[in-house]
Amino acid sequence: MATAKRAPAGAAVLRTDITVAIRDAVMYELAEVGYGRLSIEAVARRAGVGKTAIYRRWSNKLEMVLEIVSDVAGRSVPLPDTGSFAGDLQLIMMIVSRALQHRIASQIIPDLMAEAARNPQIAETLQTALRTHQQAVGEKLVGQAVARGELPADTDPDVAVDLILGPLYWRLAVSRSKPDPEYLEKLMTAVTAALRHS
Amino acid sequence: MATAKRAPAGAAVLRTDITVAIRDAVMYELAEVGYGRLSIEAVARRAGVGKTAIYRRWSNKLEMVLEIVSDVAGRSVPLPDTGSFAGDLQLIMMIVSRALQHRIASQIIPDLMAEAARNPQIAETLQTALRTHQQAVGEKLVGQAVARGELPADTDPDVAVDLILGPLYWRLAVSRSKPDPEYLEKLMTAVTAALRHS
Known about the structure:
homodimer, mainly alpha, Tetracycline Repressor, domain 2
């Protein structure tokens, strides 16, 4: 990392550094003022670049925000096989809880959701990123459990993920009552029972 | 209703009509432009009143929005006793699905949530309204089922409501994939199994 930053200023390296700086600035501004009040000027100022550096990459604010957010939201969560459904479930709930306390989930997603209701292009990009992500997690989690004989073969991966993500999202991002370990334990038991007995 | 509107223009009647017009205008503007871009001028114009009519009621935009939204969000859902947990659950899921497709849930709540992350007063008002509401629903739903012997006495009403609200909110308001009747059926079975067997 340090080496890369100190490397001779080849054009490719510089361009990457600038893109990272702009991406960080966009995420910061989105969290701080929201999409509606975000300006290219403020992003350029925070990233320490000229406005032309931004317009060279994206033709407008919408395009810039969509590409950056869907890139961040779509990064795949590393979901290792812990060897048991209980272990996998516990790990996913931990990862999701932590992710939902990050400002991307607590500020940027609600803000873009509100914008999405007014702008179909934002809606589609955001939903495609979320759904693709959710499907991958669901198929891996349920697939592993079915292969181990822990869940019925006809378990619906979508319902499974909704039962995990939904309550955590509702609690952490909407009603904002922090789930304590006892709550997480109860939720885990409930989700396991739901998938085994339905 | 018609009689009330045609009643002699007593001050009290007029004041109520104006408050209703302002409230409707605020909800409309919130859905249309969001909290950040909402202006007292636009609300007054849409409500057909002068700005003084607004400032006579609330000292600023934040106070006005908070009072109106928490009033609307806090209105109690009529939750009748259908005679069985399955019936109650089906009814609640129907009410919640419909409510989440209303613009209050799909536009105004996400927008205020994004603002809430920047403004603790909005956060507290919104969360108190949501939690009070959720608690009342949970206690009634679970209380009735326990009294009928359909659920264990130690069923946690909060977990129960999170399992119903969470997946529906996630699906309808966040990932925006419309739940079809088959999905609702699966979710109902899963939630019932979760509460009976955990």
